[in-house]
Amino acid sequence: MSARPPTLQTPDATFQSIETLTPDETMSTFFALAATPADLASHCGVERRSGGIDPIYRISAVDSTNRLIRDLAAEGVAPGLAVVAAHQTAGRGKGKRFWFSEPGKGFALSLLLRPTRPVEEVSQLTLVLGVAVAEAIVQATGVAAELKWPNDILVDGRKLCGILCELVLTPEGDMAHVIAGIGLNVNVAASDFPPILESIATSLAIEAGRTIDSETVLSAVLASVERWMKRWEDEGFDPIRRAWIARSCTIGREISFDAGDARCRGVATDLGPDGSLSIRDGSGSLHRFYYGEACHSPAIASIAR
C-alpha cells in the first residue's frame, strides 16, 4: 500500500483575525493587519546578514509569523526574508493545531524561501529543515535532539520544536515560494506548560538544566538552515536522508500511522530517497507513506487526534 501525496493547493488567502489581545501584546495588534516591508521597517528591528537569509525582521509579539510572511510575500518581497518573534498569539502547527508560545521563552522563526529543487521535491524541505535545526540545537546547547517523521524535533519523546512548511503555487501551478515556520521552546519551564502539554513537551532549558542564550541558538539555526539548504539544492536529497536517519527516533521503532485515508501499525523501516516513510506491518507487508501522522506512544497519539 502506498499513500500518495494529495494535490498541492495554493493556501486560502483569507485568514481569521485576532479578536482580543492582552495589554502586553499591544504591539501585535499592528501586525494582525496586512503588513508591508515599509510598515515592518518602521515598527520593529531589522537585521542584515551576509548569508542567504536576509533581512531578518525582529518582533516582540505577533499573531503568526507565517501569516506575516504570507502578507509580505503578497507585497512582492524577495525570498530570503525572515521574521522572528519572541511570542505568537495564534501560532499553528500541523493540522491547524495550536502552538504553545510562552512570551520571551522561545522563538518563532518564519522564512520566505524559493528552493531551486523541482516543485515535486519541495515536500522534502520539512526534512531538510529538521536536520538543520536538530544539528544547530546539538551544536549550540549539547541537547540530544532527535527527529520524528516528518516535522517534529523531540528529546526523549517530548516535543521541543515543530516545523511547518506551506507551498504556494502560481496560477499556472509552478512554485511561487515556500513559507517555512519553526517554533522552538528555549527557556520554557516545566511549570509554564499547560496541563495538556506537561507530559509531551519540553524545552532546551529543561533538557540542559540551565538557562539557554536564545540568540546563540537562533544564530546557529540560521547558519545551519543556510548550509543544509545549499547542500540539498546542490546535491539533492541523499545527504539529507543519511543525516536525517542518523538523528531519527522514528526509524526502527514500532509506530501507529494515520494518513487519513490509510492507517497502519508496524515498524518504521526506512526513509525513502523521496522523503517517504516505509512501515512494515505485522504480516510483513511494506507500506510507504508521503504524508500523515506517525504516533510513537499512546501519549502522543491521544494529542494527535
Task: Explain this structure.
The chain has 305 residues and is an alpha+beta fold. The protein is 28% helix and 25% strand. It is built from 8 helices and 14 strands. The protein has helices spanning 26-31, 37-43, 65-74, 125-141, 204-208, 214-235, 238-247, 298-304, and strands spanning 2-3, 45-47, 56-59, 82-85, 106-113, 146-148, 152-155, 158-169, 175-185, 254-258, 263-271, 277-281, 286-289, 293-295. The strands form 2 sheets. It has an 8-stranded mixed beta sheet, with helices on both faces. It has a 6-stranded mixed beta sheet with strand order 1-13-12-11-10-14. A hairpin with a 5-residue loop joins strand 11 and strand 12. Helix 4 packs across helix 6 and helix 4 packs across helix 7 (238-247). The longest helix is centred in the last third of the chain and has 22 residues, at 214-235. The chain is globular, with a radius of gyration of 19 Å. The protein starts with a strand and ends with a helix. Residues 2-34 and 298-305 have low confidence and may be disordered.
End-to-end Cα distance, whole Å, is 23 Å
Number of E-type strands = 14
Mean pLDDT: 84
Q: Percentage of helical residues?
A: 25-40%
Strand order of the largest sheet: 2-3-4-5-9-8-7-6
* Uncertain stretches: 2-34, 298-305
Shape descriptor reads: globular
How can the largest sheet be summarized? Answer: 8 strands, mixed
Radius of gyration based on Cα positions: 19 Å
SSE topology sketch:
Blueprint: E1 2-3, H1 26-31, H2 37-43, E2 45-47, E3 56-59, H3 65-74, E4 82-85, E5 106-113, H4 125-141, E6 146-148, E7 152-155, E8 158-169, E9 175-185, H5 204-208, H6 214-235, H7 238-247, E10 254-258, E11 263-271, E12 277-281, E13 286-289, E14 293-295, H8 298-304
Helix pairs in contact: 4-6, 4-7
